């Protein structure tokens, strides 16, 4: 089995901003791009990306999930990094074109085609530490991926971290490269010291998110997650799962969740905790580690509500239930 995101289609689609306009998108080989070593992105991290998926339905059609949301978020990331403004309509056409071109490479469910739009500042100007890149490159890379849970769905161990942050607060809602590298040292330490799978950042004692996923607590009919603010990434999966939870009549609470309340609720036998993100949809959390102690969440095993909400998402994505919210775009 190959690791998630290591297999690519042989071609991708690309457009360049020359300081005045975007070039007509071109299909190019996906194994290389040429950048000046002084390119702005390589020195000053003017980069952002997106992650979304296309799914194969039983009728053979290929359908992209919530593309509009991901494009809007990429426009937001670009704006907040002072990268050239993307042309949202053009990016949509690029995604649809390249996905359609490789439609035959979209795996059957539970596999999918992972789509990775990337936007980087290309101006060769190392004097521009305090100024934006006037030129940029936008490309859409494709990676067919298999079942995220092929190794079985085991419940994750999370280290709760009150000190330190995933990224600077003003970078929270930007899906940008530097955020991931900068959170690696705390991640590696958590792995080595307490065998945690992920760090759950809790600045000021309030639950925020992990390195690349949002956090949800499910306690009976209640589903609790941090309200949107500028300090963390606003997941499309988070929004989708909360929408489906509302459809089920669940009590969706977007609000502060303290470590204290989290641990107290986790002690109840039926409680579930879960991470949300495009790769897994929902990944169950079984153990929380805080101040040297381990706390089991509910049964400590993947729970039924996590599985149910993931199944509801998958059913829409895979074309097995009606797309009542209009989330799919057929290519
Ligand atoms: C991508 C990402 C998420 C999840 O977003 P989705 O749109 O649900 O895939 C959450 N947190 C961080 C830090 C991320 O990078």
Give an overview of the whole structure.
This protein has helices at 40-44, 67-80, 88-101, 177-194, 236-247, 259-266, 304-317; strands at residues 11-17, 26-29, 47-49, 52-56, 62-65, 112-121, 136-145, 156-161, 198-201, 214-219, 222-225, 251-254, 272-277, 281-290, 293-296, 328-330. With 331 residues, it is of the alpha+beta class. Strands 1, 2, 3, 4, 5, 6, 7 and 16 form an eight-stranded antiparallel β-sheet that branches. Strands 8, 9, 10, 11, 12, 13, 14 and 15 form an eight-stranded mixed β-sheet that branches. Strand 8 (156-161), helix 4 and strand 9 form a beta-alpha-beta unit. It is globular. The mean pLDDT is 97. The site of pyridoxal-5'-phosphate (PLP) has 14 residues, from helix 5 and strand 13.
Short description:
The protein is α+β, with helices and mostly antiparallel strands.
Which keywords apply here?
eight-stranded mixed β-sheet, alpha+beta, single chain, 331 residues, D-amino Acid Aminotransferase, Chain A, domain 1, binds pyridoxal-5'-phosphate, 16 strands, D-amino Acid Aminotransferase, Chain A, domain 2, eight-stranded antiparallel β-sheet, 2 domains
Task: Determine the CATH topology of the largest domain.
Answer: D-amino Acid Aminotransferase, Chain A, domain 2
Q: What does the overall shape look like?
A: globular
Helix content: 25-40%
For the record, the CATH architecture of the largest domain stands as: Alpha-Beta Barrel
Please tell me the overall pLDDT: 97
Largest sheet: 8 strands, antiparallel
Text of the CATH class of the largest domain = Alpha Beta
Cα-based radius of gyration, to the nearest Å: 20 Å
According to CATH, the homologous superfamily of the largest domain is D-amino Acid Aminotransferase, subunit A, domain 2
Counted up, domains total 2
Bound molecules: pyridoxal-5'-phosphate
Strand content: 25-35%
Terminal CA distance reads 28 Å
Tally of DSSP helical segments = 7
Unreliable stretches: none
Decide which structural class fits the backbone: alpha+beta
């Amino acid at each position: 089995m190959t690791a998630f995101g290591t297999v690519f289609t042989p071609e991708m689609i690309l457009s360049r901003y020359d300081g005045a306009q975007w070039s007509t998108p071109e299909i190019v080989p996906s194994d290389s791009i040429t950048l000046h070593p002084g390119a702005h992105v390589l020195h000053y991290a003017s980069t952002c990306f997106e992650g979304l998926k296309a799914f194969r339905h039983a009728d053979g059609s290929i359908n992209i999930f919530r593309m509009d949301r991901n494009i809007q978020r990429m426009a937001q990331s670009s704006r907040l990094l002072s990268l050239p403004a993307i042309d949202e309509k053009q990016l949509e056409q690029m995604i649809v074109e390249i996905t359609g071109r490789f439609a035959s490479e979209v795996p059957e469910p539970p596999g999918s085609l992972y789509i990775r739009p990337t936007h980087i500042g290309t101006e060769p100007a190392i004097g521009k530490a305090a100024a934006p890149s006037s030129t940029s490159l936008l490309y859409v890379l494709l990676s067919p991926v298999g079942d995220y849970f092929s190794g079985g769905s085991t419940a994750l161990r999370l280290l709760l971290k009150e000190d330190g942050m995933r990224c600077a607060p003003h970078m929270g809602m930007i899906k940008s490269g530097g955020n991931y590298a900068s959170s690696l040292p705390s991640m590696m330490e958590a792995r080595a010291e307490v065998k945690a799978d992920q760090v759950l950042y809790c600045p000021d004692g309030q639950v925020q998110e992990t390195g690349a996923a949002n956090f949800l607590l499910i306690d009976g009919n209640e589903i609790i997650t941090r309200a949107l603010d500028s300090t963390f990434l606003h997941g499309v999966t988070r929004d989708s799962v909360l929408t489906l939870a509302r459809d089920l009549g669940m009590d969706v609470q977007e609000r502060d969740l303290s470590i204290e309340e989290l641990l107290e609720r986790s002690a109840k036998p039926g409680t579930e905790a879960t991470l949300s993100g495009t790769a897994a949809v929902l990944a169950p959390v079984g153990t929380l580690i805080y101040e040297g102690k381990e706390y089991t969440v509910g049964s400590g095993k993947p729970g039924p509500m996590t599985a149910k909400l993931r199944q509801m998402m998958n059913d829409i994505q895979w074309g097995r239930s009606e797309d009542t919210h209009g989330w799919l775009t057929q290519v």
